[in-house]
Amino acid sequence: MAKDVLIAPSILSADFARLGEEVRAVDAAGCDWVHVDVMDGHFVPNITLGPVVVKAIRPHTAKVLDVHLMIAPVDPFIAAFAEAGSDVITVHAEAGPHLDRSLQLIRDMGKKAGVALTPQTPELALGYVLDRIDLILVMSVNPGFGGQAFIAAMLDKIARVRAMIGSRPIRLEVDGGVAPDNAGACVKAGADVLVAGSAVFKGRALRENISALRAAAMAQAEGTCSR
Ligand code: DX5
Ligand code: ZN
Is 34 in the pocket of ligand 1 (CB under 6 A)? Predict the structure, then answer.
């Protein structure tokens, strides 16, 4: 039985003038989740969207809205993103001093709680909150933009996070520069959710691009399971 690996297109690479259509398009093209990048121009040097946009795209897909909050402070906005229809709300470990409280807030809203680590942050930052987490996101680029190069050193961090997770029901997501040429290595290291923006939206061949990512991932997943 192959390990299930989920493909989550990042709509940061979509046409923002037609976001509802774009969400329906990646849904129809076979994605598993829809990854939504929220940037505030403070925690990261870019500004994207807020809860009102999450609310606007919610009716366009029944699939999981995987909301990646690159904002600081984060706690004042968690309720709004939850009420807007997010399913997974991921905060950055670096976003503030009270990660445990942020995770409790997300779970109290009935949502799945995720924690993201920027490339320099060690996985040990999560040691005491593992029981409050449903997903760990390993950034494989410095957050703030799509289309950046994958940082290969993050494969080791993915493997260490996988070991730290053990048998807990925690998803391990990798985000940034993911493409068919590194998707297999990400899965081999232990990732089971692959975020991809430019690799999915380039050339507008959404279904082919998602299938190529899934094929590269599953080829490795089956290899991993048979060993
Ligand atoms: C970057 C975002 C990523 C980004 C991925 O800060 O968190 O989700 O949109 O885009 P690609 O796959 O193009 O690196
Ligand atoms: Zn992201």
Answer: no
